């Protein structure tokens, strides 16, 4: 009964927070409509035109091959970054020497804009899948690496010492002590890297491939088709 009363007490605040999110979407649509009225459809098409174009792309089936190509490239680079970043970050977290050696490289990777790596990838791989996959990998890797490193380095020394004092088996120490703490840092890093992967792959496709969402945006730009551009963005 106490739990039910607590749930009912928090229900209005929960519903209000949901209404706030919906209201923000309506405000965004209203601002979009206002900009369209002021500057015209060439600069900013109205929401109805953009969503009608989006529906036409979906209904005709034209959107699915482009989305599939983009998702394949994004996930390929992302999975490589997850594997390499998680493993190497754990190693760097457990070894001070590895941590010091990796710091300059990770700093460079974090500080260099993805567009710079894209230009380099275009020279290496040309107009192939390797260009967006490599660019996604380089952009997502340091985010995951730092998450794994911080998760390993910030483990409570008292907890580690207690586990060692009770002589827990290595497997149990890893599964029950290290892993839950590291995952609490790794999971947000994986989510952040996934968002980065999607943004970077579209940028790479815009310049380096013949298909995908980025390539479709490039075609829309060349045709001055702002409605189609907004449809792909949506």
Provide a concise account of the structure shown.
This protein has 234 residues and is mostly helical.
Can you characterise this structure?
This protein has helices at 2-39, 47-60, 63-94, 96-111, 114-125, 130-153, 157-165, 170-208, 213-222, 226-233. The two termini are 45 Å apart. 86% of the residues lie in helices and 0% in strands. It is globular, with a radius of gyration of 23 Å. The protein has 2 domains: 1-39; 63-222, MetI-like (MetI-like fold, Orthogonal Bundle). The longest helix has 39 residues, at 170-208. The mean pLDDT is 85. With 234 residues, it is mainly alpha-helical.
Written as H for each helix and E for each strand, in order along the chain, the element string is HHHHHHHHHH
**Uncertain ranges:** none
What's the story with the biggest beta sheet?
Answer: none
Category by helix and strand content: mainly alpha
Distance between the termini: 45 Å
Tally of separate domains: 2
The share of residues in helices is over 70%
Tell me what portion of residues adopts beta-strand conformation. Answer: under 5%
CATH superfamily of the largest domain: MetI-like
Fold-level CATH name of the largest domain: MetI-like fold
Global mean pLDDT: 85
Radius of gyration: 23 Å
Shape: globular
Looking at the overall shape, the CATH architecture of the largest domain is Orthogonal Bundle
In total, the number of strands is: 0
CATH hierarchy class name of the largest domain: Mainly Alpha
Treating each run of at least 4 consecutive H or I residues as one helix, how many helices? 10
């Amino acid at each position: 009964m106490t739990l039910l009363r607590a749930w009912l007490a928090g229900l209005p605040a929960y519903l209000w927070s949901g209404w706030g999110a919906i209201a923000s979407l309506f405000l965004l649509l209203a601002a979009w409509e206002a900009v369209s009225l002021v500057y015209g459809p060439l600069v900013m098409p109205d929401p109805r035109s953009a969503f009608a174009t989006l529906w036409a792309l979906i209904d005709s089936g034209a959107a699915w091959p482009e989305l599939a190509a983009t998702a394949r490239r994004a996930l390929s680079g992302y999975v490589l970054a997850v594997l390499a970043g998680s493993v190497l970050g754990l190693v760097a977290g457990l070894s001070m020497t590895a941590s010091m050696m990796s710091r300059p490289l990770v700093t460079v990777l974090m500080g260099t804009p993805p567009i710079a790596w894209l230009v380099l990838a275009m020279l290496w791989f040309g107009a192939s899948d390797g260009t967006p996959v490599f660019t996604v990998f380089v952009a997502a890797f340091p985010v995951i690496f730092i998450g794994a490193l911080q998760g390993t380095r910030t483990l409570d020394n008292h907890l580690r010492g207690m586990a060692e004092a009770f002589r827990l088996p290595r497997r149990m120490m890893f599964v029950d002590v290290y892993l839950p703490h590291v995952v609490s840092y790794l999971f947000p890093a994986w989510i952040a890297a996934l968002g980065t992967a999607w943004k970077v792959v579209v940028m790479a496709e815009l310049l380096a491939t013949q298909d995908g969402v980025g390539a479709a945006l490039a075609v829309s730009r060349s045709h001055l088709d702002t409605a189609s551009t907004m449809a792909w963005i949506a």
